[in-house]
Amino acid sequence: MVISKIDLGVRPLLLAPMDEITDPSFRYVCKMYGAAMMYTEFVSSDGLVRDVEKTRQKLAIYDSERPVGIQLYGHLIDAMVESARRAAEAHPDVIDINFGCPMKKIANRGAGSGMMREPEKMIEMTRLIVRAVPMPVTVKTRLGWDDDSKIIVELAERLQDVGIAAITIHGRTRAQMYKGDADWTLIGAVKNNPRMHIPVIGNGDIKTPQDALTAFDRYGVDGVMIGRAAIGRPWLFREITYYLTTGNILPDMPVPEKVALAKLHLQKSIEHKGERVGILEFRRHLSHYFKSLDNFKETRLRLLTSNDLADLHALLDYVQMRWGDVPHTPQPVTTLQ
pLDDT tens-digit profile of 49-96? Predict the structure, then answer.
């Protein structure tokens, strides 16, 4: 799959932009395990135009994580165009426009998936952003606002016509939020539309290697974007890549490797945000790292309430000592047909 001149290889896996999740420390570990491309957290156009420090910090990207995109959201065309120019100064590989976030505080203001109710405004905003920045512009969106307005097939064509280099489609409407199952049939319809010539990336309910294979083989997408399933499980990218390549399922990641990764992830979080904030924000991931362990409730509570770095390291060492040699039930090995 190629976005403009960015070659992501065959059947690439992308890390979805997620607010307060896809910070530099999480992107670092996802890159380690094979994410082909990643995106920043949502960047508010209003905050960027007003030069809010917390917003500007989200523009921090690093050469080691390339290719990487900066994702912007907002409901005012002029502010979005200006914020795109400012984001371009951070030299991302792409500028991504968020037309998909369903959160009330964003969508109800007309930003994110709120734009699905104003397709003409969406098209004009996209056209002007494409003209304003030197790098490729991509879009992430949904099927429509609700079941009565699934406009994605026509909308994707129109976005392509004003110059976007790729489109990512989450297989739900805004009304669904994250409920119910993602509908990949309309994602497939966009991909199989003979007028579409840009990459189509599918997103929604990719939780297992088998889900990814179905997305590629049944719906024909060029790439798969993974979001919530990767939180506290960055090794999912490795599991999927291995399955797509060999047809076999990797065994569950050994506890010692999870412990070592948790320590590295924690270290990176502290490097970027300082010890107090770094520990607090790392908890979002740590709560998922050891989900498969039995009799873990008490230790998990201690991990998620400790504010002391030395204590956290001691607890992680205890996890390795207590569960590191516990035999795991092997997962069934399947072969591609």
Answer: 998 999 999 999 999 999 999 999 999 999 999 999 999 999 999 999
Cβ–Cβ < 8 Å for 255, 319: yes
Instruction: Confirm whether 101 is a catalytic residue.
Output: yes
The DSSP output letter for 165 is: S
- Residues 72, 101, 201, 212: which is the catalytic one? 101
The half-sphere exposure of 122 on its side-chain side, counting CA atoms within 13 A, is: 31
Residues 8, 22: Cα–Cα separation, whole Å: 19
> How far apart are alpha carbons 96 and 227 in whole angstroms?
16
Residue spans per domain, the chain: 2-246, 255-323
How far is CA 131 from its chain centroid?
26
How far lies 237's CA from each of 50, 82, 261, in Å?
A: 37, 34, 14
**CA 181, 182, 185: angle at the middle one, nearest 5?**
120
Q: Is the peptide bond before 134 cis (omega within 30 degrees of 0)?
A: no
| 6, 67 Cβ separation under 8 angstroms | yes
Mean pLDDT of the chain: 93
Contacts of 253 (CB under 8 A, 6+ apart): 235
pLDDT tens column, 42-55: 999 999 999 899 99
3-state SS assignment for residue 37:
strand
Measured between alpha carbons, how far is 28 from 263 in angstroms, rounded to an integer?
A: 13
Domain 2-246 = CATH 3.30.1330.60: no
Q: Using CA atoms, how far apart are residues 69 and 137, in angstroms rounded to an integer?
A: 9
The backbone torsions φ and ψ at residue 314, rounded to the nearest 5 degrees and listed phi first, read -65, -40
| Contacts of 255-262 spanning 24+ positions with Cβ under 8 A | 255/290, 255/293, 255/319, 255/320, 255/323, 255/324, 255/326, 256/320, 256/324, 258/289, 258/290, 259/316, 259/317, 259/319, 259/320, 259/324, 261/29, 261/234, 261/235, 261/289, 262/286, 262/289, 262/316
